[in-house]
Fold this protein.
Amino acid sequence: MTPSASRAAVPERSGRPAPPGRPPGRRPPRMVSALARAMPFPAGAGLARVLVERNVMAYRRLWVLLLSGFVEPVFYLFSLGIGLGALVRTVTTDSGVEVPYPVFVAPALLAASAMNGAVFDSTFNVFFKLRYARLYDSVLATPLGPRDVAVGEVTWALMRGSLYSGAFLLVAAVAGFVRSWWALLALPGAVLIGFAFASVGMWATTYMRSWVDFDYVTLVIQPLFLFSATFYPLAQYPGSVRWLVEWTPLYHGVALERALMLGDVGPGLLVHVGYLLAMGLLGVWGASRRIERLLLS
Amino acid sequence: MIEASGLVKRFGDLVAVDGIDVSVQRGEAFGFLGPNGAGKSSTMRMVGAVSPPSAGVLRLFGMDPATHGPQIRARMGVVPQRDTLDEELTVSENIRIYGRYFGLSRAETRRRATELLQFAQLTERADAKVEPLSGGMKRRLTIARSLVNDPELLLLDEPTTGLDPQARHVLWDRLFRLKRRGVTLVLTTHYMDEAEQLCDRLVVMDGGRIVAEGSPRSLIECYSTREVLELRFAEEDLTGHARAVEGIGERTEVLPDRLLVYVADGDAASSEVHRRGVQPLSSLVRRSTLEDVFLHLTGRTLVD
């Protein structure tokens, strides 16, 4: 270990002059860091991406595990779409279009799998790193802050999620269950759903005391999966229940993906986008606040 | 490097650190000596800029950790009390990704990982998993990892606790080398031999306060005698024997298993004990250590 000219770089304004030989483009864009400072967010050094890099490194030897995420939604698609679809034949959507059952259910499965993947990643995996591996303790001893941890982990969950969603879309398209080129936007749509659930899931994880608490996660996720107009249109519900469902997050995800994959696009979709975006930002805020309270006390 | 005055850390009603003043200069090896619960780790976390002080002033490299945490942490290395190695990664990856956390380029982290593994004598284990490594190896890896950003200040929280004697000596040797290179070391320990080996200057902490400060030598001169006569007896109750040897030394301490007689000349004191007709099972003359200083200052032993 010899002292070298280039010391560690801190990509925020520091009193020291920038050391020579620092690669350019390491600072976050001025706008982003200004925005981050303006918000009441816990501190971060804009280095969330290196936590993503750490996860990529850890998963390089575990890529087989990644495959499991592809399989589940595709199984659902063929079991429900083809099996159940043979009995149900067509469904009239909430916007009044009659479509074959697999075409109806595929977008919902995409939304649900985006949710499931995000929740799994941000609860089980984060809990392990937080309480057992104590990963974040060592991370926070470096320039990284709690916001970097939250943003990094959520980003990683989204990267994995979009891999699965992309594969699912491809399978659905090849099987002939996709009706419109708008379906290309279903991929970012799935990432948005993942963002909403991953960040809130991570927030919830910071309150968990033991593995037993994960039963509560199932308790929330299962009804969302079953009742968010996933397998039948919202019109099946009586008025008051429908109103309730319209407030739940996965409903907005399902509605967004269904509209995009059926090509039934209108300005109303912005409500779904806004809902999910707000949920995601709230989650990142809450998660980083909690990490700060837990680990930087 | 470190300037603290009136530093306090409270957790609810518990006062972990109760108003301490500390100043550490560049190139020094500085120690916090004290038993478990003395407030050493809480102090280290504040100095590591990961725990905001409840009161008092703290400046690290002249900066306030509340506003310049990332800048401060970028110039420090931290070896926590419990190893927090990344067990999903290999030995070499642990160092490389840690360098990335400090914003170093990939090429630079690769170069430093090679150097640091050599320094930590772990080159052969570079591609091994972390989990099966021995305690001493994990500790050396943690130290190697903490050096990846070429820190000016290295914080070590009980660096050798739980290691066998040989592993401790290997580790001390590595820390000596760092000290020679001009790295400022700040460490906590409840081993007096460790403090004597490594520290130029230290403070003795008890109950969240600093009870003494100085070099190991000066603390011993100040708070203890040159030699100590240790007497062991067959009986359980040592108070009778304590009375019998009273006045031989400057002080007598009664421990559960032995008496300590503080004297300038241990052999002369030993003869005096025999002259008085006191018959210990064994008697031993040794030099005073920081353990004796601590015992004198707090009435308690460091490791119990």
Chain B has a mean pLDDT of 90.
